[in-house]
Amino acid sequence: MHTATRVTLARLPSGVPIETTIHRYGAGDGPTCYVQAAQHGREINGTDCCRRLHERLTGDAAGSTATDSDGPLAGDIDGTLIVVPVADPLTFDRVSYTTPEPIDSAAPNMNRCWPGDPAGTIHERMAARLWAEAGDADAIVDLHTGSPEMLTHTVYLRGDDASRRLAEAFGTDLLLAEAAGDEADTEWDERNFGGKLRVAATREGIPSITPELGSNKQLDDEAIQAGLDGLFGVFRHLGLLADDPDPWDGVRARNHLGRVRAADSGLFVPDAAVELGSEVDAGETFGTVSDPATYEPLQTVTADRAGVVYSIAREATVTAGQTLVGIAERLDG
Predict the structure, then answer these.
(1) Tell me: the pLDDT tens digits for 277-318?
(2) 95-104, Cβ contacts within 8 angstroms, sequence gap of 24 or more
(3) Full-model pTM
(4) Rounded to an integer, what distance in angstroms lies between the CA atom of residue 130 and that of residue 305?
(5) Residue 43 in contact with residue 219, Cβ under 8 Å?
(6) How many CB atoms lie within 10 A of CB 69?
(7) d(Cα 200, Cα 247) in Å, to the nearest integer?
(8) CA separation, residue 24 to residues 55, 58, 114, 246 (Å)
């Protein structure tokens, strides 16, 4: 069974409604899983992942290469699956990460104001309307898209075993545990990470994950396929689909700690040997930042810790303080 409902999330000052579509699949007494994409409008691979999921579940593959053997049909879903392919139409239409200040100056980033407020700002009202769908789910998958310079990974709230198991079922090779409360660094408070959907939901007892697929602003078939495979792993883990997810054997690491930043502005030339996913030791060299006019070397970029390289700046012009390399520091167990 499949239904698609057009809903109003909020209204613009002119009275024009901000609308999106909510899809529901399956029926019965099984678990409920909530999946959404495009909270940030330039992160579109999750949206196409939802489209391909729809084709698999309904058999409606017109104009695509999907076949009946590619996955289950809606009748195979033992429970309820709720899918919102465009969670934030405002940023989607602008291919942007946040909204312009005139639209929502108080909460320009929708993923900082969950579970929302039905009497709040535009983004807070939008989040509250979607929370009415997500808040009763047994698990939440919030699909995001990292940059082309970032390794595909899945983020979960550190210390929450149910969310960690959900992340393992999604199946990316790298899992990043994001700390909260007293265990968090100052970046948590400064960026209001407590208002992320994943964090708010986990604190309400709903296991939640944020997969970061690759290549924002463009559709990347490999990233979309990774997202689709990951969703099926989650559905099997929850019991929405028969069988168990594939065993996970990857790396768990800490998020937002190992950021090697530019000490000065200039041109960053990474070493040819630096690759996403590579293991590094503290002190290893990544490249050089130089003055483009005088050719003077300004910084030898080195690892401040051991771990896994999960992001590399590929745009050569960098400014002081910009992240050049992200290192995921391994967690034991």
Answers:
(1) 999 999 999 999 999 999 999 999 999 899 999 999 989 999
(2) 95/41, 95/42, 95/217, 96/40, 96/41, 96/42, 97/40, 97/41, 97/42, 98/40, 99/123, 103/12
(3) 0.92
(4) 40
(5) no
(6) 5
(7) 28
(8) 13, 11, 22, 25
